Amino acid sequence: MKEPRNQAVLKIGELAARSGLTVRAxxxxxxxxxxTPSAHTDSGYRLYNRADVARLHQIxxxxxxxxxxxxxxxxxxxxxxxxxxxxxxxxxTLDRQIAQASALREQLSQLHRQMAGGGQPELADWLSxxxxxxxxxxxxxxxxxxxxxxxxxxxRRNSGWAALVxxxxxxxxxxVPPADAEPRQLSERWMQMLERDTxxxxxxxxxITVMMxxxxxxxxxxxxxxxxKQYVIEAFGxxxxxxxxxxxxxDELRRMRDGAGKHGAQWMALIAAVHRRLEAGADPADPASQxxxxxxxxxxxxxxxxxxxxxxxxRHAHAAEPRLLTGTWVTPAMxxxxxxxxxxxxxx
Length: 348
Known about the structure:
With 348 residues, this protein is an all-alpha fold. The chain has helices at residues 12-19, 23-31, 50-64, 69-77, 83-116, 123-137, 142-147, 155-173, 181-197, 202-214, 216-222, 226-244, 250-259, 264-279, 287-304, 308-320, 332-343, and strands spanning 10-11, 39-40, 46-48. It has 4 domains: 10-77, Multidrug-efflux Transporter Regulator, Chain: A, Domain 2 (Orthogonal Bundle), CATH 1.10.1660; 83-140; 148-244; 261-348.
């Protein structure tokens, strides 16, 4: 095949030099069908056009996300592969790296100013600050951190969290059941503080939860171990059941207790997704909104069943008792959005 006319093309050596890959790597991509050049010269040299280079960009981007060559081939073979999403993920990754570098520079500049002024900060304090900063930078951009009250260095807020964690640790050491009055009360305060310190943004709360689960350093610094977290979750569940007791019968409460704690991570991700739809001003009748409403109702029925009478009781409870939504990142506007979306479903 002759070289195409009126179209910019690169020979394999040129593409290797421009992309930072070796000619051997491009040969390998060709041999496994991952990147086949669109043309060849009369003498057999591979020629790569704009579409080929765009595909190579996608391959390299996915490689950086840790995807195997086999999985990349499967992904790119999909007729609706979200190429724009790949670029968006690269941009987000670069944004995080830039934010991390900027935050570190800011922290070191502050250290330099303090030392230049004759101050002598404690090494342990700076190491602790830098460690925490690096932890949060893994999960939040610089802009998001500035929007997080949780991140602001407020002595009263930090001491409030420390006192709350210490008291719950003491209750656990004493063997106080999560269903007792004090753990229930403290769990409500915990969720109120966490909702406040995440700016009532469920996506921020979800990421902080993941961070606390994945980062031992965060657990060590805060004292929030998986065991303590589970204790608070159980106590908060008992707190909500006590509120529902004024509206549900014994069988309904037992069913709710049996379903408590199931699909917790899925619930939080779903609440965050609905929050984003609301923030974007989405139409409840949009297919994406309807998909979220279906998932919401599926998870809801796992917890409380399908009895319409029970559903109506719970709607009444939420309308009459605002504390049921406190610390859940669920708002009345969110519930209205889900109901409006459900009303547009074909089965509604």
